[in-house]
C-alpha cells in the first residue's frame, strides 16, 4: 500500500462532505456541474477496477468511499434539478 496514494484519496475525499452539505441545504445546483460529477464517478470506477485487477490493497476502500460520496452528491444534483424545474411550472 502506498501511503501517498492513501493520503491523496483522503484529501480528495475531504471536499465531498462539504459539497454534499451545500447541495442538501441550499437545494440549488449553483456552481455544480453534472458532467464534472459523472467524470469524477467514472474516474473512481476505473480506479476501483485497477485496484481489483492489478494492485489490490486497503486503499480500495477509500476509492469506494469517495465514489459513494460523489454518487450521493450526484443524486442531490438530480433532486435539486427536479425541484427547481417544478417550482418554475
Strand count, sense and barrel status of the largest sheet are: none
Helix content: over 70%
Please give the radius of gyration in angstroms.
15 Å
Structural class of the helix and strand makeup?
mainly alpha
Give the termini separation: 53 Å
Q: Order of helices and strands, N to C?
A: HHH
Shape: elongated
The number of helical segments is 3
The parts where pLDDT drops under 50 for at least 5 residues are: none
- What is the overall pLDDT average? 93
Total count of strands? 0
Strand content range: under 5%
In short:
The protein is an all-alpha fold and 89 residues long. Helix content is 81%, strand content 0%. The chain has a domain of 58 residues.
Notes on the structure:
This protein has about 90 residues and is an all-alpha fold. The chain has a domain at about 30-89. About 80% of the residues lie in helices and about 0% in strands. The protein has 3 helices and no strands. It has helices spanning about 5-25, 35-55, 60-85. Helix 1 packs parallel to helix 3 and helix 2 (about 35-55) runs antiparallel to helix 3. The longest helix has 28 residues, at about 60-85. It is elongated and about 50 Å long. The N and C termini lie far apart (about 55 Å). The model has no long low-confidence stretch (mean pLDDT about 95).
Amino acid at each position: 500500500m502506498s501511503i501517498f496514494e492513501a493520503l491523496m484519496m483522503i484529501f480528495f475525499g475531504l471536499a465531498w462532505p462539504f459539497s454534499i452539505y451545500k447541495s442538501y441545504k441550499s437545494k440549488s445546483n449553483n456552481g455544480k456541474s453534472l458532467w464534472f460529477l459523472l467524470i469524477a464517478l467514472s474516474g473512481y470506477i476505473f480506479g476501483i477496477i485497477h485496484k481489483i485487477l492489478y494492485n489490490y490493497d486497503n486503499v480500495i476502500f477509500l476509492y469506494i468511499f469517495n465514489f459513494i460520496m460523489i454518487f450521493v452528491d450526484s443524486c442531490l444534483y438530480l433532486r435539486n434539478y427536479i425541484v427547481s424545474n417544478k417550482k418554475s411550472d
